[in-house]
Amino acid sequence: MFKSLLLIGLFDLLKKKEESVDYYIQRLHDLREEEIETLISLGALYAEEEKYEEGLEYLEQALSIYKSMNDEEGQAFVLDSIGDVYLNMRRINTALEYYKESFKFYSSAHSVNAKEEILEKIKEVEKIRDAVDIVDHEKTEEIPPKFPVEDEYVADFQKISDKLEELIKIIETTRIYDMYFKKKDAMEHLQEAYSISKEIGDDKGEAALLLMMGNILLREKNVRNALRYFTDAHNLFDKMGDENGKAISLLLIGTVYFILGDMGKVSASFRKSVEKFQELGDKHSESLAIDLLNMLYNE
User: Fold this and answer.
1) Do the Cβ atoms of 245 and 223 come closer than 8 Å?
2) For the chain, the helix, strand and coil percentages under 3-state DSSP, each to the nearest 5
3) Cα–Cα distance, 174 to 166 (Å, whole number)
4) What digits encode the pLDDT tens for the residues 56-77?
5) Which of 78, 113, 170, 297 is deepest in the core (most CB within 10 A)?
6) What is the phi/psi pair of residue 143, to 5°?
7) Which domain holds residue 246?
8) For 183, which DSSP code?
9) How many domains does the chain have?
10) Digit-coded pLDDT (tens) for 73-104
């Protein structure tokens, strides 16, 4: 009797609302979508705060719901997001696994634009992985210095210097002095500008000029002094809190260590630089860094 009354009450409720089964199925779907959106937002917020494990936990929950809904495009999106978290954790191979799974689901769902975007991301991250692997391999193999004696250097210093010049010009302050780069007496002009910057307390100008002068010294095969100038520039950028300047100076420092055959310091310098560009979202500089590393190893 009591059950009958409950059923009657339930039917009365439905009649009052005058809603169909389809309405409630759609409403359930919408609630699930809202839950997923909340889980993904929480995952992203935790990842942004570098609380990666908490972020992954919420993203995995969102992925589980999409799986229960058999939503391939939704699964692809969350897999891509999980890959981003692992990339921020510097777990490049794990990130690639998730990106590749995401690519499979986007392909299956016929999401052409999303599929192309994730494919490009896979290629970029593979380039980063390969560049880091090259350095780590050289570091662990204990290979003797590539250029043990300065007089025996076989590196193409002009080619390396031209590549470094491209990187240095990313720093806006260097553009003021760009006209001096190609002059025969460039070093004299740059030293004069450096003295003025130092006198007036222009740290930005001072750091930029140190990089430019260091590159000229490297071109002239004055490797040790080039390293000193690049290191001084890095210290100034660090003092100013200029993350982009620090990342670029690390590339230049890493290049000198490559010439000197110190592969452990090459690895540390390039890794820190690339990671910094990733944090800054500077894909152009990141790409130039990888191109530089590939050029050095293909010399």
Assistant:
1) no
2) 85, 0, 15
3) 11
4) 999 999 899 889 889 899 999 9
5) 78
6) -75, 140
7) 147-297
8) S
9) 2
10) 999 999 999 998 888 787 888 888 999 899 98
